[in-house]
Design a protein that fits this description.
Strand content of chain B: 5-15%
CATH topology of the largest domain in chain B: Rossmann fold
Largest sheet of chain A: 7 strands, mixed
Radius of gyration of chain A: 20 Å
Shape of chain A: globular
CATH architecture of the largest domain in chain A: 3-Layer(aba) Sandwich
CATH architecture of the largest domain in chain B: 3-Layer(aba) Sandwich
Oligomer: heterodimer
Number of helices of chain B: 12
Shape of chain B: globular
CATH class of the largest domain in chain A: Alpha Beta
CATH superfamily of the largest domain in chain B: Thiamin diphosphate (ThDP)-binding fold, Pyr/PP domains
Helix content of chain A: 25-40%
Number of strands of chain B: 7
Number of strands of chain A: 14
Strand content of chain A: 15-25%
Largest interface: A-B, 47 and 39 residues
Distance between the termini of chain A: 56 Å
Distance between the termini of chain B: 65 Å
Number of domains of chain B: 2
Strand order of the largest sheet of chain A: 3-2-4-5-7-6-12
């Protein structure tokens, strides 16, 4: 059904992606904690049980390893499960299933058993959440061979990347930035816009490149806007596909400006931001006028709501890092 | 909700054969048909031969490691023979004999234990899941396979194997709970062989028996003499039929004994003595089955010779297959990580290929 372009929130886009995938493919099943009649604590599965029936979208016992482990079995047996982990830090009980089975089964069976499944993880902070509700856990998954790890930052990417993730013959960990759930933007539902393996230049610029993803993309865009008012032209690249990573696209962007700052909310040590920084440095060294800088969360447990603003990469910290990129006029 | 008492296992493990091979009357369960017992006996003999042969291959350095099911062959044979063709078996690393009893090629089953990077056989061919190495994680996969089949209206039953140690894992709990809530047709078959490497059962649980754990999930539990092939078959037949009929999951605990060390790398003299092991020799599942069949005069000399010959053929195939096997190819390490290799993996595969070519390989 042709829908054209529509202005919807990321939450609505994800809901729409689940519905469209379920309509097109009867083997797509959605389950997890509170995803049934309640529609999920973030309402991503709102109305799906009512419209598709209790077999297709159902609540499970409260046990994340059980949810992911059952999804593995269903995927082995002809289904395409899409499971919700409710919150980043509550996905940890499923870690063994994800690392030892979800990620390794294709390899371990020499390609005979594929696991086409999606583990949706609402993640990161900026929502005033209490402890265990704001972790940026993407590095754990990105570090695990066999997983595809995606982190959309806008409704259009959320819709198309989730559609693509569900259709993929491999398991995907789909990181959804909670604080961006409610921001609205245009989504063209008719024209497929695949994102796996690609980055996206979300703002053109000539002086330096901000490389970011997920919840930090709007912050980077805001920083670029402020910089523009101060006469500096910043390009913003949304990495969005953490695994596989778009080395070619990101490096092309960095070479075009010769300066780069990596911005991510997760603690910086041994993080996706570290990896991006290393990759860009290894590949673009002779195009760089300054060392690649990182703006990340501190290496501390995620702070309580009243202090979380100190943890999040903000516009000022990003612009300070840009100022440090050895400009000739300094 | 079932009556509480209906969920509890029988007071003693179900037994249909004494160690001497004499039959024991059971109020409900009849002795399986003689033809079935003969087929099971053959499977037991093959299972024992497979265990012995694999042990020898380890000593010759041709297998990296082998966790033997010596003494547990009745459980191995019973688990496979209780299933129909369309059913699924979920074995662990100690269930090589069960996979072979279900028809998987013996050499392919040994792939991982040989030290290769993949699990060998095609799981869909005989509907035998890859042997699981982490404990209890595969029980959840069994629930998922069963639930998917049920959603499609198929009457598939899944036999999920684990040992006593695995019942302490969280995934054992989650699997039984999920299976019960979703009425998934899974028979959880626990081979209680008294040891998890060196740790005895008393350190795994304070429950009256492992089968008693079923009631906590609303699952009917049952216990069976795991060295009595007639009882194992009779109980598993009943539970598989119940699961197939829509009765939801079942939990069966087989009381058996790990006659050998955990693997060849283990030294069991550090945690148990011969006095403990010896009484179990009299309860050997093979001797018991043989005594019954001889008593019934169905195990003729000829038939026994044919069965022995078949077991020797399997052992010979194992020796030849392991010998013929070439070393794993390094280049294939990158081929199955994703359906389509990432650009990074393609780069790394090229790097390794270049490194190997410079080494002259």
């Amino acid at each position: 059904m042709a829908e054209g372009s529509t202005k919807i929130s990321m939450a609505q886009a994800l809901n729409r992606a689940l519905r469209d995938a379920m309509t097109e493919d009867p083997t797509v099943y959605v389950f997890g904690e509170d995803v049934g009649p309640l529609g999920g604590v973030f309402r991503i599965t709102d109305g799906i049980t009512a419209d598709f029936g209790e077999d297709r979208c159902f609540d499970t016992p409260l046990a994340e390893s059980g949810i992911v482990g059952m999804a593995v079995g269903m995927a082995m047996n002809g289904m395409r499960p899409v499971v919700e982990m409710q919150f980043d830090a509550f996905a940890y009980p499923a870690f063994e299933q994800v690392v030892s089975h979800v990620a390794k089964t294709r390899n371990r069976t020499r390609g005979k058993v594929a696991l086409p499944m999606v583990v949706r993880v609402p993640y990161a902070g900026g929502i005033g959440g209490v402890e265990h509700h704001c972790d940026s856990s993407e590095a754990y998954y990105a570090h695990t061979p066999g997983l595809t790890v995606l982190a959309p930052s806008n409704p259009a990417d959320a819709y198309w990347m989730l559609r693509e993730a569900i259709a993929l013959p491999d398991p995907v960990v789909f990181m959804e930035p909670k604080k961006l759930y409610w921001g609205k933007d245009e989504v063209d539902l008719d024209t497929p816009a695949p994102g796996i393996g690609t980055s996206s230049v979300v703002r053109e610029g000539t002086d330096a490149t901000l490389i970011t993803y997920g919840p930090s993309v709007p912050t980077a865009l805001e920083a670029a806007e402020t910089a523009a008012q101060e006469g500096r032209s910043l390009q913003v690249v949304d990495a969005r596909s953490l695994v596989p990573f778009d080395d070619a696209g990101v490096c092309e962007a960095v070479r075009s400006t010769g300066r780069a700052v990596v911005v991510a909310e997760a603690s910086g040590f041994a993080s996706v931001a570290s990896e991006i920084t290393a990759r860009v440095t290894e590949r673009c060294f002779h195009s760089l006028a300054a060392p690649v800088r990182r703006v990340t969360g501190f290496d501390i447990p995620y702070p309580p709501p009243k202090l979380e603003r100190h943890q999040l990469p903000g516009v000022d910290r990003i612009l300070d890092a840009v100022d440090d990129l050895q400009w000739e006029d300094q | 909700m079932a009556d509480d008492q209906d969920l509890l296992p029988s007071e003693q493990p179900v037994q249909l054969l004494e160690p001497s091979g004499r039959t024991v009357e059971h109020p409900v369960l009849p002795l399986p048909h003689t033809d079935r017992l003969l087929a099971a006996y053959e499977s037991l003999v093959v299972g024992r031969r497979v265990n012995d042969q694999a042990g020898a291959l380890v000593r010759q350095g041709k297998l990296a490691v082998y966790p033997s099911s010596h003494g547990q062959e009745a459980c191995q044979a019973g688990a496979a023979l209780a299933l129909a063709e369309g059913d699924w078996l979920f074995p662990t690393y100690r269930d090589t004999a069960a996979a072979i009893a279900r028809g998987v090629d013996p050499v392919q089953v040994l792939t991982l234990l040989k030290g290769d990077w993949h699990s060998g056989y095609d799981p869909y061919e005989k509907r035998v899941a890859p042997q699981a190495t982490p404990l209890a994680t595969q029980l959840l996969h069994a629930v998922g396979v069963a639930h998917a089949a049920r959603l499609r209206g198929e009457d598939t039953v899944v036999m999920a194997l684990c040992g006593d140690g695995a019942t302490s894992e969280g995934d054992f709990h989650e699997a039984l709970n999920f299976a019960a809530v979703f009425k998934a047709p899974v028979v959880f078959f626990v081979q209680n062989n008294e040891y998890a490497i060196s740790v005895p059962l008393a350190r795994q649980t304070a429950a009256p028996s492992l089968a008693h754990k079923g009631i906590g999930y609303g699952i009917k539990g049952e216990r069976v003499d795991g060295n009595d092939i007639a009882a194992v078959l009779a109980v598993l037949d009943r539970e598989v039929a119940a699961a197939r009929a829509g009765g939801g999951p079942r939990l069966v605990e087989a009381h058996t004994y790990r006659m050998q060390a955990h693997t060849n790398a283990d030294d069991d003299t550090r945690y148990r003595d011969g006095e403990e092991v010896d009484p179990w020799r009299e309860r050997d599942p093979l001797l018991r089955a043989e005594a019954l069949l001889k008593r019934r005069r169905v195990l003729t000399k000829d038939r026994k010779a044919r069965i022995t010959e078949h077991a020797e053929e399997v052992a010979a195939a194992m020796r030849a297959g392991v010998d013929a096997d070439t070393d794993p190819a390094p280049s294939e390490l990158f081929a199955h990580v994703y359906a389509t290799p990432t650009p990074q993996l393609t780069e790394q595969a090229a790097f390794l290929a270049d490194e190997l070519s410079r080494e002259g390989n």
